[in-house]
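#onboarding

Welcome to the new folks! Below is a worked example of what a typical request in this channel looks like: someone posts a single protein sequence, and someone else replies with the predicted structure as tokens. Don't worry about understanding the tokens yet, we'll cover that in week two.

Example request:
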Amino acid sequence: MSLPTIPDEWALAASIGWLVYIIALAVWIIVQKRPPLSTLSWILSLAALPVLGFLIYFYLGPQKIKRQRMRRQRVRTLHGEQAPSVEDTEDAGLPQRKQTLGRLLRAATGSPVSNATDAQLLTGGEATFSALHTAIDAAQKHVHAAYYVFDPDRVGLPLLDSLLRAAQRGVKVRLLVDSVGSPSLKKKHTAALRKAGAEVTYFHPFRLATLRPLLNLRLHRKIVVVDGCIGFVGGINITEDEHEGLNSTAFHDHHLRLEGQVVNWLQTLFAEDWTYATRRPLADDDLYPAMAAGAIATQIVGSGPEGLWEPIHRLYLHAIASSHSRVWLATPYFVPGEAALFALSNAALRGVDVRIMVPRRSDSLLVTFAARSYFDDLLEAGVRIYEYQPRMLHSKTLLVDDDCAVVGSANFDQRSFRLNFEVCAAMYDVGMTELLAHEFERDFSRSRRVSRPRRVDPLRRLAEASARLLSPVL
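Example response:
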């Protein structure tokens, strides 16, 4: 029995429809003015998926949102004289070799080099959560917290209790969490907190009424500001997955506790996110209390999809390109673009001690394969690569020479550089650099150095090469 044939006119109509779909999709993606490789990857990947490809790009594809005017101008206008002044302080306290970097980041973000009177490098969730509870329990005016992951577990519930006690004694509590990163934090978990007068808001919640939900643009920051004078920033989320005292396989991570004028810039970043998410400005008095100048030169660098400059990406590229003696990088997700790959290999080729530390296996097998696909070229250039063995490495830190230490929320990948709302603290301080160097050296001793040449079976090499094709969209 012969198979039914498709009428020629149907085949012609289908071909024309597919061609129109491809042209429309290509025009839509091209006008986003993304990097050529990313643009071609999206077009080629979605061309084979009519209708479904459109929906994937519509909901998950790269998006730009235009909130730049509201971010810096509206928030600072609404806060008037309270907002920190952007005075010409970018060279204050900076090592001479890092002054260009400070000016670059100020131009890209609007945040100048500031200073801290005290800076503590916190290793692991147990130390970080203890410091958070201490600061919240002593709060007198306000507690502002923004997190990607906030789980109502053995870490999250006690922290909610600390926030509740603060709210009950009259402290203004505001909690901003990402709707995708914190799906288990329900209204029932924050009901008592809200009843006590606290405010809880979700960032980019999914709404069917929204024309194009911003599912792919996430608040990946981890910020806490207490009374405007104590700030926390880094890579540690609120989850027992990051508490080594409760979970033997908890992520290995780092965080910062800061005091001093630099906290003003964490406060401003939180205020911008809060105003953006709620459409309401912060109206408190004393958001920016007067504080004595400190000796630790520190710059808060916020980055997100709303601007043109990709500040954290530029921070990494410039710091690596201008390095003299060493570049030590720790990241759970290593998916560099071409510029970052060139910066790392160039530094190694000119004799800089370049070391990259990644987890033995990250929590994403696809990202693990993609990361390994870059190893051969980097090893050939002289980069030393280490795979952290004991647990999942979740630290996002960078050490450059003897006078620049970076701790933050951004991974070394395109998603963090271009899509997520991220934050990091760049500290131009010999003391903090020594502390972070000690942490790196201890972690290197717990890692396996990747041999050159790598011994990889053909099937795994194919998997790595295939995963690399998806690097622009990971």
